[in-house]
## 1
Amino acid sequence: MTGDTVGTRLRRGILTRLEWVWDELRQLTTASPARFAVLIFVALILLFTALYSLPAAAADGKPTSLADALFTAVSTICVTGLSTVDMYSHWSPLGHVITYVGVNVGALGVLTLASILGLVISKRLGLRAKLIAAGDSNPLRAHGGPVNEGQTVRLGEVGQLLATVALSTLIIEAALTLLIYPALIVAGIDPVTALWEAPYYAAMSFTNTGFVPNAGGLTPFADDYFFLGVLMAGVFLGSIGFPVIFTLWRHQWHVRRWSLHTKLTLITTVILFFAGAIVFLSLEYVNPKTFGSMDAWDTVFQSFFLSAMTRSGGFSVVDIGELNGSSLVAGSMLMFVGGGSASTAGGIKVTTLAVLALAVWSEARGRQSVEAFGRRIPSDVQRVALSVVAWGATIVALSTITITQITKAPVELVLFDVISGFATVGLSTGLTAELPDSAIYVLAATMFMGRVGTVTLAAAVAATARSQLYSMPVERPIVG
């Protein structure tokens, strides 16, 4: 028996076993893809916690503490960007590679990742796999039951969506790398070092994570508008979501063919981007510790940069801890909203805000239905949006109260970092690095719930929609 024959049989045996394991997982989790998402996320976090705990992953060659390793793993897989250690000096080259791989894995979304894995193993994408993958593009699909309303991405298009996710990630990060590399060279970075830092910055911008590969962070690039502009472009592309990228790729500038989800995402994102910049410009213009020492052009540009980063980017040029209290509140509001659905950004999502705003506007005008761009938004979508906001606010409130009680820190600082963790933004007032272990675990749980909790909740709410052959008598309580 030749070595090639043995090797071929071994590979076939491994693939057969992997396919069997995959089929078993699909059988167990098809009824609840949302539960599958949580399972995969937990498994990834445990795996990366073990990797970060390795002595070889730390620069000093010593094992990292469980609290710091777990927090870094959660922050990496949830593409948050918060850290309890100095991400540049604490980790060895192996640790930085683990971080780079982790953020790209976490950015894809666990349901998408699981579907791609199943496609690779089984060489096919059946109905069950399509239902799982569709859960990342629309939480209303994630309960696995029938959905009567039109979908952002139909089941027949799921295969194309998965290809778009994989290809867009590779292409966008490669393009960002090509743009960032010469900027690093001009800034005086060693060409060999820039070969690593360029793809690292590209990944951290597109995945909306915000980790930096150098000691000074963005301080050396504070006046490099090209470099900062590229980072903003990467954050924007990552935050609009893969379904929007899929729609733009298919229909390009044929706006009339864009889905309602795409239109709401882009319009709300642009409005919040400019509104945030105006707010930061007006609140920080005379603050000598932030924008007060800059000229007019620098102030305007940095206001837009800060507005983009509070949406989920996580990069910062100014010291967030030096912002005025009013700016911290404004930043907290922007972070809570976050980016687009099925994106690398966190928060309650811009479409959630848009749906609620349209519902309020329709109610104010006395309309019976919520409509936008010639389409009616069904009541179950409104209910999911309201539930996501309510539970998101509840998670933030409970986490803020708990951490404030543990640390006795000013509540405005705690609230900012908690929302940053919940919305997977990564900006910090400096409080996160000083948290005791008990508070670290609370904030890690907040990041986890912020990344997977709202989607799981949306799926659970959607799953409760059942046909009912009778209705209860109507009675209206007093509201307001």
## 2
Amino acid sequence: MGGGRIFSRCAVMILTLLLAWPLQWAPAAAQEPLPRRNLLDMIFGGGRRYIDPPPPVREVAPRRPRQRQREQSQPRRNRAPTARASAPRPAAPAAPAKPDPVAKLENARQILVVGDFLAGGLGDELKTAFEESPGVAITERSNGSSGLVRQDYYNWPGQLPALIDEVKPALVVVMIGANDRQEMQTGSGRVDFPSDAWFKEYEKRVRDFGTIVTSRKIPLLWVGLPSFQSPSLMRDAVKLNGVYRSEIAKIGGEFVDIWDGFVDEDGKFIVTGSDMNGQQARLRGSDGINFTTAGKRKLAFYVEKYARRHLGEMASPELVTLDASSLPELQILPPSPSAAVPVQPISLTDPELDGGSVLLGGAPPPAQLIETPRDMLVRRGELPPAPKGRIDDYALPSPQ
């Protein structure tokens, strides 16, 4: 009973304090925010008013002036560009300076390159191929739209003799025919491509054109046509290459076959393939006819091998003039005081070199030769008996 009374009194006192709390601090409540509700408030309640903390106030940016708004409403193309602060970009590494071309010798042997637009690219890359060879110079005289059919446009049989007399080449390279797939005007009239009459006349023109070079005892390299993306153009290129190969062989020239360098394993046209260094590169243009720089360099690589064989030592990049200007300076050093005294030469047949008095083989052989294990194995196929106790000693022990 006594414990129950004490608990009731304590509860009354706590309730009284809780009810008197808002009356005591009423003046301060008007100035400070009301406290948050605690656990006792939620259990016993009370006459006070409680509020939750207000939500955080979001700061609203002030509105821009109307003039600034009008500027932003203007089209973007009329607005003045604003400067953007950006970090300075690192400078790209400078490309290594290309060495100066090697000066050509006065008596450098000339290679004359003639033909159509394909010959023009070939001549440019042949200059790169021989840029370090002072004994070889390249002269390129091509006409992009020319051929052996339209002699009314550009007459190669009439122009080539004058070019040879002017350049005086040691080698002539011809690449032509990409523009010749058209009708031909002959003495008996016009013939259509690819009729038999057309090919018969074309063979004669190829033979006559090559004879202008070979009749002057000048080596002739006739470069064949490459593969093309167009199936019909590719088919005709195969026929024309057959004409070049047969007719140039008849007059003593050489046919340079480049076909395999620009097709895949199945013989189909490729745009990307191995360059002259074996690396994958784009070789042909988007039109399927022209070459890229890597393709031209690969094309020149085929011709370069033939040209170096004809020109010999003059095509070597290490060619130098052997005169007093290219010899190194000879420096004669004074003799050293500590140098060893030279010994007198002796004969290799002197028996006293090894302390003996008889040369090797000079003594008579022994009267009885001892047969070695090697002689037993080679001559009779026998092995000497194994030493007693070794693992291969298979002899049975003698009985006690």
## 3
Amino acid sequence: MKIRRILLPAFAALMALPAQAQQAGQPAPFYFGADLSYVNEMEDCGAIYRKDGQARDPYGLFAEMGTNLVRVRIWHDPEWTNYSDLDDARETIRRARAAGMEVLLDFHYSDDWADGDKQIVPKAWRSIRDDTPALAQAVYDYTFNTLRALDAEGLMPDQVQVGNETNPEMMGEADWKTTRPGINWERNAALFNAGIKAVRDAGAQSSIQPLVMLHIAQPENVEPWFADAWKHGVTDFDLIGVSYYRKWSTQGLDGLEQTITRLRHRYPAEVVVVETAYPFTTDSADNSPNLLGEDSLLPGYPATYEGQRQYMHDLTQRVKFAGGVGVVYWEPAWVSTPCSTRWGQGSNWENATYFDWRRGNEPTPAAYFAKETYQEPAPIQITVRRPQGATGPLWLWGDFLGANDMIVRLSPDASDPTLYRYTTTIRPDSTVRFQVYDQRPFTKGLIQSGDLIQATVSREGLDASYDIAR
């Protein structure tokens, strides 16, 4: 295969979100989010959030600081608390919408915390835990009915998480990590697909069709999990949610960025860092031990105002460069109050919130991370033209895909079968290398065909066209 290289002038263009996202009410180009699942409880416990010395409504204050997405959790039947049930989630959605923000509803499918270590079946479903069809039906009915109830009040969320940090198999009797190694993917896929179908069916009856997010904790776990999920038929999702806390991850910011890059090229979904946080101090306001301390710090990011602000800026910049579409801060309003949790009086997170108790719960600089200046990724468009009569797919390899063994299958343009296009984004001022093949590469015995092309991507982008001689 002979390629004649033609480089066209750089161009400026905006990358479109997937068709599903555009159909769901034109979401923001980038989500600057906050998980506000604790706010209603904190206010009931006497918390006051201030700006410039004045008490402020927290939802209005977050919107003013640039937040455009509020995440809220929902437990099935949390008898141990009066919060994070349907009534509490309803109140959060109502207040967030009134402040002009979109909402992500996070189904834990548990009566308590579901996370990367444990996924415990709700008490009401315990008797059918091992009856996959019955449990899948329960998941469908609960998800569908919850969304329809919200929609009846004009509170349909814009996005829905089907599960929270679902690294282990969903809905076990105890801690899957210690009692049931591995995942029964026949069961797991049935439960996920039931929840996803419920979101789609509820959205079909609403003016808002929520985007579906699946969520895994820590970047090193995301790719293996999604590979298994996809292999077992879990394919109908719009968003990949990633938790990133350096304390619990083997990856630094480089690893996070590279993971996002690979995910967005490998799956027809957008990527959001849907949980992250960073301490602005290692001090504590109460006797309840804080979860993020010295063991949570990255080199160059001290536990100070500036360290927290710089962490949020740099992480967000890397997410943007990698092609991700959002960053959500976890529990920025879980401040210390006279109330107690099962772990003690106060909060386990006050040193990693956006509010400094030493200054009357005034916002820290990181609270304004949405208003920071960020460099946008540069768009790339690669167009390949084949002679009339040449048929079949082409394959594109590029170092911008994030891994040496990753390729993209190119299909002919619907309006012109001689044209093949691929569009993506990359860090500006980068040099990229790519190669086009007329046979699937990386197969045994294949002799590479096609010239290796190298080009520099300016801040405005790159528009490259190539003719294939045969």
